[in-house]
Amino acid sequence: MVRLKGFRKLTPIHEALQKFFDQLKIGKLKMVTVSVHQALNRALAEDIIADKDLPRFDRSAVDGYAVRAEDTFETSQFKPKTLRITDGNEVGKKQAKQVWTGNPISDDANAVIMLENTKRINGEIEVWVPVTPGENISKRGEDISKGEVAVKAGTRLKPQHLGLIAALGITEVKVVDKPKIAILATGNELIEIGRKPERNQIFEVNRLILSALCQELGAEPLDLGIAKDDVNEISEKLRVGLEKANAIITTGGTSVGASDLVPAVVNSIGKPGVIVHGIAMRPAMPTALAIADKKPIIILSGNPVAAMIGFEVFARPLIYKMLGLKHEFRPVVKAKITRRVSTVLGRKSFVRVHISQCGEEFFAEPVSTLGSGVISTMTKANGYVVVPENRGGLEEGELVTAHLFGSIEVVDGNV
Amino acid sequence: MVRLKGFRKLTPIHEALQKFFDQLKIGKLKMVTVSVHQALNRALAEDIIADKDLPRFDRSAVDGYAVRAEDTFETSQFKPKTLRITDGNEVGKKQAKQVWTGNPISDDANAVIMLENTKRINGEIEVWVPVTPGENISKRGEDISKGEVAVKAGTRLKPQHLGLIAALGITEVKVVDKPKIAILATGNELIEIGRKPERNQIFEVNRLILSALCQELGAEPLDLGIAKDDVNEISEKLRVGLEKANAIITTGGTSVGASDLVPAVVNSIGKPGVIVHGIAMRPAMPTALAIADKKPIIILSGNPVAAMIGFEVFARPLIYKMLGLKHEFRPVVKAKITRRVSTVLGRKSFVRVHISQCGEEFFAEPVSTLGSGVISTMTKANGYVVVPENRGGLEEGELVTAHLFGSIEVVDGNV
Description:
19% helix; Molybdopterin biosynthesis moea protein, domain 2; 415 residues; Molybdopterin biosynthesis moeA protein, domain 3; homodimer; 29 strands; disordered N terminus; Molybdenum Cofactor Biosythetic Enzyme, Chain A; 4 domains; six-stranded mixed sheet; alpha/beta
């Protein structure tokens, strides 16, 4: 019997995402409390409110002498003034109190004169540079005032956020639990890496790639293994995924061949099932998005490159939503395409490019427009350019916006 | 007694780095063998050479029928041709063999015709779109040929590299051991977070920040705790660091005050000691670079922002060298400065900015030019602009190059 040939209709990416997220009610993931020492890259679940001013007191920003600014007015190298050093807590008129960076400044002093602008002679200092009121003082609350939001919920905690939280004396934070993403590969031709392949067998690498991509974003991958192109086997493994994970990602079996069973099996295990199947993009056209038991299922192509691009476009925003994070856009760079690229009209094309910087200019070299199974196009590339549906390609020398997933190679501008 | 006032000479950053790395012979770190499942973000220690072609055989890039291309020449919707379906391994003249994506193609076939361009009627298919020789076939070795370097030593392993390595059937890789970086904070005013501070005490947060920065780069932080401004205590802790770690980073006690003991103590514990002290930069001017027992010691300011910028400029390239990695430059973006910024002539200034994208334009809002102790300038910023020594600032509207350490905020272009 002949199956459906090709897709009757391809859905544009934005429409597919809209439909998917409209129907998907992402339940709040559990919050967990972790030490600030374990919180790097976690998603903050609740606002951190400053319970005190930071700094807690006016303090010196430099090494020097706390003084009354008025006492230094009109000094110069030719007209130095002399101030008496005090050891007390207060700084009187024409007095100076030695302070180091970070030391509190008492209310009667209003400026700090830097050590290098003074000369100490017995119990006095000679001053020849005037200071203005407030100079070299970090005012109480200058960093954060009591009651202010120090770090917003939905922030991915980077070293500087941890520093600010710790500076408030806070040792534990509430973060969103890592979403568990179950990952299943399907295909009769697939074997585990490390095994000895028969002539027509292929090492299964998508689970490894997708797990790593999940980890990079702060999700926890859960391995469902490899399923043969068999309804029962796929169905059984998907059920395990639905039970144990917050989302499922599958690869393979999503095209329109006789062995492309995944969308049908997904439809059979939960409602509403497949929401969209067939996206107006290249690669990753046979991607499907589904929901079963209120859990998202992203059905990716078995081709590694298509799976990676499908993950980028669909799984990445999903994981951000699950973590309650604002989407983090990849860095972009305007670069000149070094040669002509043809793309297919009616599909959004993701052209892998190698971006290099030469002097002040950026160049994007298309890595290959070969098949989406060619993983080395992803290792040679450090970014991609999106060509819209209404264009058949890019012209040589055209200025494009490249999205970076690796670091830019810097080529000596003088060569 | 009066100590040295200020630095007699400030060294430009590039000169400081040059001196430091010229004298520092970075010993090869141990190699360790890890599973590809544990290798994400590790530094590859040896080239991965393909021991086989990838793909290992000519295979179909689509679902369809393997044919001899000649048999499809001159077909059209009005002039279809008919091919007989074969179940054998060979594809004879005027025959077609059904294949799914990834299936091997035997030598006698030279193209695959897509399923959607055929119509199956009993034991035959009708074909109306011609294919050219090689069409829809992934050729053996198209991805990587046997003997080729698949991934170069000195590569940080990202998901796509792991995928390529696994596709060759390789399950373990040799990576560079994580460099151990001992981290010490010094200062009488410092207390551990979680304790109750007295009036003039400050929570010590630099170790937390620097540990997180080390982890992000793939180094392993080792906590040396807090030392009082005391020669013996600092010296003792530094010795522990030299013994247990590959490098040491300290913060605090590096200015020119009476309690700024760290450079002197470093000089006393090993040769050649301090190489440079006082850098022509802002913040992080009092940074010192030292070597003792052939191990690098980076002496950072106690101000959290200065410590972070000092880490960026000096510790980051050091860690890349220790890992044997090519330096990864931060993504850059050309942005318009939204308001005037003043900087100090003769110093390279690191101005923290918040970069946003509005339509096609990028804007960099200076976050603050306040003291380098203000951590919130780092949490509000997502990048920095480097102002050269020979400029006194940036003009409003000036196009600058911003280095990104966070993701760009996208503002609706229509607002």
